[in-house]
Design goal:
Radius of gyration: 37 Å
Strand content: 25-35%
Structural class: alpha+beta
Largest sheet: 9 strands, antiparallel
Order of helices and strands: HHEEEHEEEEEE
Number of helices: 3
Distance between the termini: 100 Å
Length: 252
């Protein structure tokens, strides 16, 4: 009986050996697959790192420019746009790239450039009133006040600001759009002469008296009975009378 039991156990040990060898081979194969996958993930991470750095560099610099532009003071990039880029020789609808950080795109610290493009907006409000149309002095003054309110600040340019960043061969660009809004004055033309007007009245003053310190050149009593009063919105020439609004942030 004992001899039979030993013979049975020996036969089972012999059958288990191939099973152990198969399991060992499967584990080795799985380890090889995992090592290969880990290598691929490591390579992908190495490729993504410069791309992430380029993204962060572009976005951070773009946010810095945005803060300068929307600060409401004519300094930094706002001064550059107002006094140089929106003047000649730069042309509308043409992209110009300025290098912010000279160097090789493979530099681990990255390379920065800024691309600017401007688009002239259609503007220049105009209005006209017939002096013989039966409007009372109060009604005419109220309509002129309403026109001056809408023409007080107008957008004359849309500007696209794109920050381009390159880090170790990876590149990313971050774009924001702005409007330049300028303070306007309204000039009134009556019988071929151009005047300013005191708000709420029909008192017109020569443009040579912008503070309206002297006597009015025209009043409700001295306006012609016929003809037109024409109004034109004109931008202020002072750089301090303009501001930049980020259109991506729903500025107003």
């Amino acid at each position: 009986m004992t001899r039979r039991l030993r013979a049975c156990l020996c036969s089972r040990r012999g059958a288990a050996l191939p099973l152990v060898l198969c399991l060992g081979a499967a584990l080795l194969a799985l380890a090889a697959v995992l090592l290969a996958a880990a290598g691929q993930l490591g390579a992908s991470a190495a490729r993504l790192l410069p791309q992430e750095q380029a993204y962060q560099l572009a976005r951070t610099f773009s946010e810095r420019l945005d803060a300068d532009l929307c600060a409401g003071t004519p300094t930094g990039i706002a001064e550059f746009l107002t006094t140089r880029f929106l003047q000649s020789p730069y042309a509308d609808d043409t992209a110009y790239t300025f290098t912010a950080e000279p160097g090789d795109a493979a530099d681990p610290y990255g390379q920065l450039s800024v691309t600017l493009q401007r688009r002239l907006l259609a503007w220049g409000p105009q209005a006209a009133w017939d002096l013989g149309a039966g409007l009372s002095a109060g009604e005419l003054a109220a309509q002129m006040d309403a026109f001056e309110h809408t023409a007080a600040e107008l957008a004359d340019y849309e500007i696209t600001v794109t920050v381009n960043a390159a880090v170790s061969g990876a590149a990313f660009s971050y774009t924001q759009r702005y409007e330049r809004r300028v303070v306007c004055r309204v000039a009134y033309t009556v019988a071929g002469q151009v005047y300013g007007r005191r708000a709420g009245t029909l008192e017109f003053y020569p443009l040579s008296d912008p503070q309206m310190l002297g006597p009015p050149a025209l009043t409700a009593q001295t306006l012609p009975d016929r003809g037109q009063v024409e109004a034109n919105g004109e931008p202020s020439a002072a750089a301090a009378d303009s501001r930049y609004v980020n259109l991506e942030k729903g500025g107003s």
